[in-house]
Amino acid sequence: MKTGRIRFALIFACLLAPLVGVLPARAESSDVESAWRLLDYIGIDYEGAVENGVVVNPVEYDEQVEFAATVEQKLKGLEEKPERQALLDSATALQQAIAAHAPAADVAKLAHSLADALLAAYPVPLAPSTPPEFKRGRKLYEMHCASCHGSSGDGLGPAGVGLDIPPIAFTDKARARQRSLFGLYQVISQGLDDTPMVSYAHLPSDDRWALAFYSGHFAFTGQSLADGKALWENEAALRERIKDLKDFVSLSPQALAEEIGEEKADAVTAYLRQNPEVLQPKSSSLALSRERLAESAAVYREGDRARAASLALSAYLDGFEPVEPIVAARNSKLLTQIEDGMAKYRAAISRGDDAAKIAQQADGIDALLAEAETLLGAGTGSPVSTFLGAATILLREGMEALLIIVAMIAFLRQTGRPEAVGRVHGGWISALLAGGG
Q: 132 with 206: CB under 8 angstroms?
């Protein structure tokens, strides 16, 4: 299903590019990521600007003021949603706290809370699709990062000597505790403006995640690794708290320390950052979907609407979407019912519907998912059925793309724009070649 969607999206994007430029949805995603990165930066670096209510670094303080204002502007430009006003109110509170020279802990809490709420309201990809390979991360780090940040992550690499802004020392545990792996991934992907840190967006996403995991391990080494392994294997509550890669990469060691204590948090961080494969879900895809759906209804009943929305989205993206091609091949009506039910469920959460109604909708979707489990049997289908399901969807989406091409060419010919027709032909040919690769 994903392969078909990617190919269709690629064709569609290439067709539109010569006529309308970059798609707005991608621009919004970029704004969300940029705002999140700025909030992460504020949460970590504000303490270097203000101490005991006094500005100790005017340059750094002015930057914090600027970044907080930029966050507000980016939020104003996002799609209208019920949650957006609350985000803007939080952005105002953050600016007021910075203007009042509030304590670093208060500003960090405001910044990180706003960052979490932002991603809950405007989701962007938060985690790698598969556990990163630690050995791959080490190789990439030596190729791209060690010359500045040092082979041991101490920030003393030969290329970093004499730079106006010295490279970050990944071994700085106080700083490392405040930054999540998603934050590291964002910096690796986008770089840091006005610093020697460039963007590595040209690297595949999996490589950037591998780099984030590897560079994020330096501050958490030694005996804590063995302690972390023991904690992870023996404490069920901890495994319940960190269910998968998405939970882990968005969680800073400091936030985890507030729940289980600093010593334990450091140990678990050390173990999981070097052994992310243990976070691979062991339940079947549809079982995961049903589990997340039930959790969503439960936390909604407790009043945590943002978490309920996040779990509802995960129930679809992480649980149901991987088996969509097989369900479509065997019972297309059931596929439509589940997709429609999940969409209405997410909309109901967004509106703030009554908890009893939310629970009723969740029960209805769960029954459909149980039917899908029966349909698929104990496994997720044979390779042949998977191929046929994916091929059917790819053919359908390919036909949709073809109809769009024909309609666009006909329109452009009627309006007397032969040069644009040529660009459309160039676009679909380029997309076809890229999709074939």
A: yes
What is the per-residue pLDDT for 417? 64
pTM above 0.85, yes or no: no
Local structure of 23: helix, strand or coil? coil
Residue reference for tokens 């679809």: 316
Contact criterion met (CB below 8 Å) for 190 and 208 = no
The confidence band for 322, taking pLDDT boundaries of 50, 70 and 90, is: confident
Phi and psi based region of residue 303 (left: phi greater than 0; alpha: psi -120 to 50; beta: remaining): left
Which residue, 247, 79, 254, is CA-closest to 175?
A: 254
Higher pLDDT, 80 or 417: 80
- Here the contacts of 199-205 (C-beta below 8 Å, separation 24 or greater) are 200/144, 203/140, 203/144, 205/125, 205/128, 205/129
**Span of 43-47, 268-272, 358-362, 383-387 with lowest mean pLDDT:** 383-387
Query: Residue 222 is which amino acid?
Result: G
**Residue 54, strand partner residues:** 51
In one-letter notation, the amino acid at residue 158 is: P
| Residue whose C-alpha is closest to residue 328's, from 320, 65, 311 | 320
Q: Is the pLDDT of residue 221 over 60?
A: yes
Pull the structure tokens for residue 178. 């405040």
Q: What are phi and psi of 50, to 5 degrees?
A: -130, 135
DSSP 56: S
